[in-house]
Here is the input.
Amino acid sequence: MGSPLERSREWGRSREWGGWALGSPLWRRHPASAGSATDPSAAHWAPDTPAPTAPTPTRTPPHPTATLPWGIATLAAGLAAEAYAAHTSTTGLSMPGSPPSGPLGLLLGWALAALGLTLAGPGLTHLCGHLLQAARPGAVRLLAGRVLMEEATRLGRPVGVVCAAGSAAYAVATLQDPDGPAFGPLTTLGVLLVAGCTLATLLTTAVEAKHARADTTAALLRLGAPATMLRGAAALRAGALLAVFGPLAVFVAELAARPLAR
Here is the structure.
Protein backbone atom coordinates (compact mmCIF):
# COMPACT_ATOMS: atom_id res chain seq x y z
CA MET A 1 0.00 0.00 0.00
CA GLY A 2 2.91 2.39 0.73
CA SER A 3 3.21 5.14 3.23
CA PRO A 4 0.56 7.85 3.56
CA LEU A 5 3.03 10.36 2.08
CA GLU A 6 3.49 8.29 -1.11
CA ARG A 7 -0.26 7.77 -1.48
CA SER A 8 -0.89 11.52 -1.17
CA ARG A 9 1.73 12.20 -3.87
CA GLU A 10 0.15 9.66 -6.25
CA TRP A 11 -3.30 11.13 -5.61
CA GLY A 12 -1.99 14.63 -6.29
CA ARG A 13 -0.39 13.59 -9.60
CA SER A 14 -3.56 11.81 -10.78
CA ARG A 15 -5.65 14.85 -9.79
CA GLU A 16 -3.31 17.16 -11.67
CA TRP A 17 -3.26 15.10 -14.90
CA GLY A 18 -6.94 14.16 -14.78
CA GLY A 19 -8.30 17.55 -13.78
CA TRP A 20 -6.26 19.59 -16.22
CA ALA A 21 -5.87 17.22 -19.14
CA LEU A 22 -9.24 15.48 -19.10
CA GLY A 23 -11.68 17.24 -16.81
CA SER A 24 -11.16 20.85 -17.82
CA PRO A 25 -13.09 21.91 -20.95
CA LEU A 26 -10.68 24.77 -21.70
CA TRP A 27 -7.36 22.95 -21.84
CA ARG A 28 -6.01 19.91 -23.64
CA ARG A 29 -2.60 18.40 -24.07
CA HIS A 30 -1.40 18.96 -27.63
CA PRO A 31 1.84 17.53 -28.97
CA ALA A 32 4.53 20.12 -29.57
CA SER A 33 5.93 18.24 -32.55
CA ALA A 34 5.39 15.18 -34.62
CA GLY A 35 7.56 13.08 -32.32
CA SER A 36 5.79 14.11 -29.12
CA ALA A 37 3.05 11.52 -29.64
CA THR A 38 5.38 8.92 -28.17
CA ASP A 39 7.18 11.31 -25.83
CA PRO A 40 4.78 12.69 -23.20
CA SER A 41 7.47 14.98 -21.83
CA ALA A 42 7.49 16.97 -25.08
CA ALA A 43 3.81 17.95 -24.80
CA HIS A 44 2.66 21.45 -23.96
CA TRP A 45 -0.57 23.01 -22.83
CA ALA A 46 -2.69 24.92 -25.35
CA PRO A 47 -6.19 26.41 -25.13
CA ASP A 48 -8.96 24.45 -26.82
CA THR A 49 -10.10 27.35 -29.01
CA PRO A 50 -10.10 27.57 -32.83
CA ALA A 51 -7.15 29.31 -34.39
CA PRO A 52 -7.93 32.78 -35.76
CA THR A 53 -8.45 32.79 -39.50
CA ALA A 54 -7.42 35.56 -41.81
CA PRO A 55 -10.31 37.60 -43.21
CA THR A 56 -11.29 36.66 -46.74
CA PRO A 57 -10.51 39.53 -49.10
CA THR A 58 -13.59 40.83 -50.88
CA ARG A 59 -13.21 41.45 -54.59
CA THR A 60 -14.90 44.63 -55.69
CA PRO A 61 -16.40 44.50 -59.19
CA PRO A 62 -14.91 46.87 -61.75
CA HIS A 63 -16.68 50.09 -62.58
CA PRO A 64 -19.05 49.79 -65.58
CA THR A 65 -17.17 52.52 -67.47
CA ALA A 66 -13.84 50.69 -67.13
CA THR A 67 -14.34 48.81 -70.41
CA LEU A 68 -15.72 51.80 -72.35
CA PRO A 69 -12.33 52.96 -73.76
CA TRP A 70 -11.45 49.39 -74.73
CA GLY A 71 -14.80 49.00 -76.45
CA ILE A 72 -14.38 52.19 -78.45
CA ALA A 73 -10.85 51.20 -79.45
CA THR A 74 -11.96 47.70 -80.49
CA LEU A 75 -14.87 49.13 -82.48
CA ALA A 76 -12.57 51.55 -84.29
CA ALA A 77 -10.11 48.73 -85.03
CA GLY A 78 -12.91 46.58 -86.48
CA LEU A 79 -14.17 49.35 -88.75
CA ALA A 80 -10.62 50.10 -89.88
CA ALA A 81 -9.93 46.42 -90.61
CA GLU A 82 -13.11 46.15 -92.63
CA ALA A 83 -12.33 49.32 -94.61
CA TYR A 84 -8.79 48.11 -95.30
CA ALA A 85 -10.07 44.72 -96.49
CA ALA A 86 -12.59 46.42 -98.77
CA HIS A 87 -9.88 48.68 -100.23
CA THR A 88 -7.22 46.04 -100.88
CA SER A 89 -9.23 42.96 -101.86
CA THR A 90 -10.57 42.42 -105.39
CA THR A 91 -12.28 39.06 -104.92
CA GLY A 92 -16.03 39.04 -104.68
CA LEU A 93 -18.09 37.45 -101.97
CA SER A 94 -21.17 35.49 -102.97
CA MET A 95 -23.66 36.89 -100.53
CA PRO A 96 -26.56 39.35 -100.78
CA GLY A 97 -25.10 42.78 -101.39
CA SER A 98 -21.96 41.43 -103.08
CA PRO A 99 -19.32 43.39 -101.10
CA PRO A 100 -16.05 43.79 -102.99
CA SER A 101 -13.88 42.38 -100.20
CA GLY A 102 -13.00 38.85 -99.32
CA PRO A 103 -14.78 37.05 -96.51
CA LEU A 104 -11.80 36.95 -94.13
CA GLY A 105 -11.29 40.69 -93.74
CA LEU A 106 -15.03 41.31 -93.66
CA LEU A 107 -15.69 38.75 -90.94
CA LEU A 108 -12.71 39.93 -88.89
CA GLY A 109 -13.85 43.52 -89.06
CA TRP A 110 -17.42 42.64 -88.10
CA ALA A 111 -16.23 40.45 -85.23
CA LEU A 112 -14.09 43.25 -83.81
CA ALA A 113 -16.89 45.77 -84.23
CA ALA A 114 -19.37 43.49 -82.44
CA LEU A 115 -16.87 42.88 -79.64
CA GLY A 116 -16.32 46.62 -79.30
CA LEU A 117 -20.05 47.30 -78.99
CA THR A 118 -20.35 44.55 -76.39
CA LEU A 119 -17.49 45.97 -74.32
CA ALA A 120 -18.83 49.51 -74.58
CA GLY A 121 -22.36 48.48 -73.58
CA PRO A 122 -21.97 48.69 -69.76
CA GLY A 123 -20.26 52.07 -69.91
CA LEU A 124 -22.88 53.52 -72.26
CA THR A 125 -25.67 52.17 -70.05
CA HIS A 126 -24.06 53.79 -67.02
CA LEU A 127 -23.82 57.10 -68.90
CA CYS A 128 -27.51 56.79 -69.81
CA GLY A 129 -28.29 56.66 -66.10
CA HIS A 130 -26.19 59.78 -65.53
CA LEU A 131 -28.00 61.64 -68.31
CA LEU A 132 -31.41 60.73 -66.89
CA GLN A 133 -30.46 62.31 -63.57
CA ALA A 134 -29.10 65.52 -65.05
CA ALA A 135 -30.77 68.96 -64.91
CA ARG A 136 -32.85 68.75 -61.69
CA PRO A 137 -34.55 65.37 -62.13
CA GLY A 138 -37.89 64.41 -60.66
CA ALA A 139 -38.70 61.22 -58.80
CA VAL A 140 -39.30 59.16 -61.94
CA ARG A 141 -36.11 60.28 -63.69
CA LEU A 142 -34.09 59.86 -60.52
CA LEU A 143 -35.37 56.33 -59.96
CA ALA A 144 -34.83 55.34 -63.61
CA GLY A 145 -31.30 56.77 -63.64
CA ARG A 146 -30.25 55.09 -60.40
CA VAL A 147 -31.53 51.70 -61.57
CA LEU A 148 -29.66 52.04 -64.88
CA MET A 149 -26.46 52.88 -63.05
CA GLU A 150 -26.85 49.93 -60.68
CA GLU A 151 -27.73 47.47 -63.45
CA ALA A 152 -25.23 48.79 -66.01
CA THR A 153 -22.95 45.76 -65.84
CA ARG A 154 -25.84 43.29 -65.98
CA LEU A 155 -27.79 44.96 -68.80
CA GLY A 156 -24.99 46.61 -70.75
CA ARG A 157 -23.47 43.60 -72.44
CA PRO A 158 -26.74 42.09 -73.77
CA VAL A 159 -27.79 45.53 -75.01
CA GLY A 160 -24.42 45.85 -76.76
CA VAL A 161 -24.90 42.47 -78.42
CA VAL A 162 -28.37 43.46 -79.62
CA CYS A 163 -26.91 46.73 -80.93
CA ALA A 164 -24.24 44.81 -82.85
CA ALA A 165 -26.81 42.44 -84.35
CA GLY A 166 -29.05 45.34 -85.37
CA SER A 167 -26.12 47.17 -86.89
CA ALA A 168 -25.16 44.12 -88.96
CA ALA A 169 -28.75 43.66 -90.15
CA TYR A 170 -29.00 47.33 -91.13
CA ALA A 171 -25.71 47.20 -93.03
CA VAL A 172 -26.73 44.07 -94.94
CA ALA A 173 -30.08 45.65 -95.81
CA THR A 174 -28.26 48.76 -97.04
CA LEU A 175 -25.92 46.73 -99.24
CA GLN A 176 -28.72 44.59 -100.65
CA ASP A 177 -29.04 45.03 -104.41
CA PRO A 178 -32.67 44.90 -105.60
CA ASP A 179 -31.55 43.17 -108.80
CA GLY A 180 -29.17 40.81 -107.00
CA PRO A 181 -29.80 37.42 -105.44
CA ALA A 182 -32.44 37.32 -102.75
CA PHE A 183 -32.03 35.83 -99.33
CA GLY A 184 -32.28 32.07 -99.34
CA PRO A 185 -33.99 29.95 -96.69
CA LEU A 186 -30.74 29.18 -94.86
CA THR A 187 -29.76 32.86 -94.71
CA THR A 188 -33.21 33.78 -93.43
CA LEU A 189 -33.05 31.01 -90.84
CA GLY A 190 -29.62 32.19 -89.68
CA VAL A 191 -30.79 35.79 -89.36
CA LEU A 192 -33.86 34.76 -87.39
CA LEU A 193 -31.79 32.51 -85.15
CA VAL A 194 -29.25 35.23 -84.33
CA ALA A 195 -31.95 37.84 -83.77
CA GLY A 196 -33.98 35.49 -81.59
CA CYS A 197 -31.01 34.49 -79.44
CA THR A 198 -29.91 38.07 -78.85
CA LEU A 199 -33.42 39.24 -77.97
CA ALA A 200 -33.98 36.23 -75.71
CA THR A 201 -30.72 36.97 -73.89
CA LEU A 202 -31.74 40.59 -73.38
CA LEU A 203 -35.20 39.66 -72.12
CA THR A 204 -33.77 37.04 -69.75
CA THR A 205 -31.33 39.56 -68.33
CA ALA A 206 -34.12 42.11 -67.87
CA VAL A 207 -36.22 39.56 -65.97
CA GLU A 208 -33.25 38.66 -63.75
CA ALA A 209 -32.68 42.34 -62.99
CA LYS A 210 -36.36 42.74 -62.12
CA HIS A 211 -36.21 39.82 -59.68
CA ALA A 212 -33.02 41.23 -58.14
CA ARG A 213 -34.87 44.51 -57.45
CA ALA A 214 -37.95 42.80 -56.03
CA ASP A 215 -37.15 43.77 -52.42
CA THR A 216 -36.53 47.40 -53.37
CA THR A 217 -39.74 47.54 -55.38
CA ALA A 218 -41.72 46.05 -52.48
CA ALA A 219 -40.19 48.59 -50.09
CA LEU A 220 -41.16 51.47 -52.38
CA LEU A 221 -44.73 50.17 -52.63
CA ARG A 222 -44.94 49.89 -48.83
CA LEU A 223 -43.76 53.50 -48.53
CA GLY A 224 -46.63 54.61 -50.74
CA ALA A 225 -45.00 54.94 -54.17
CA PRO A 226 -47.67 54.51 -56.88
CA ALA A 227 -47.30 51.62 -59.28
CA THR A 228 -47.65 54.01 -62.21
CA MET A 229 -44.42 55.70 -61.15
CA LEU A 230 -42.55 52.39 -61.24
CA ARG A 231 -43.95 51.56 -64.67
CA GLY A 232 -43.06 55.05 -65.89
CA ALA A 233 -39.49 54.61 -64.64
CA ALA A 234 -39.20 51.28 -66.49
CA ALA A 235 -40.52 52.85 -69.70
CA LEU A 236 -38.10 55.75 -69.30
CA ARG A 237 -35.17 53.36 -68.92
CA ALA A 238 -36.15 51.50 -72.08
CA GLY A 239 -36.57 54.76 -73.97
CA ALA A 240 -33.18 56.05 -72.83
CA LEU A 241 -31.42 52.87 -73.94
CA LEU A 242 -33.20 52.96 -77.29
CA ALA A 243 -32.34 56.63 -77.77
CA VAL A 244 -28.63 55.96 -77.22
CA PHE A 245 -28.09 52.53 -78.78
CA GLY A 246 -30.44 52.98 -81.74
CA PRO A 247 -28.55 55.86 -83.39
CA LEU A 248 -25.28 54.16 -82.45
CA ALA A 249 -26.28 51.01 -84.35
CA VAL A 250 -27.25 53.06 -87.41
CA PHE A 251 -24.01 55.06 -87.24
CA VAL A 252 -21.84 51.93 -87.01
CA ALA A 253 -23.80 50.29 -89.82
CA GLU A 254 -23.31 53.31 -92.08
CA LEU A 255 -19.57 53.40 -91.37
CA ALA A 256 -19.29 49.66 -92.03
CA ALA A 257 -21.33 49.71 -95.23
CA ARG A 258 -19.75 52.76 -96.82
CA PRO A 259 -16.44 51.08 -97.81
CA LEU A 260 -18.30 48.04 -99.14
CA ALA A 261 -20.67 50.08 -101.30
CA ARG A 262 -17.86 51.60 -103.42
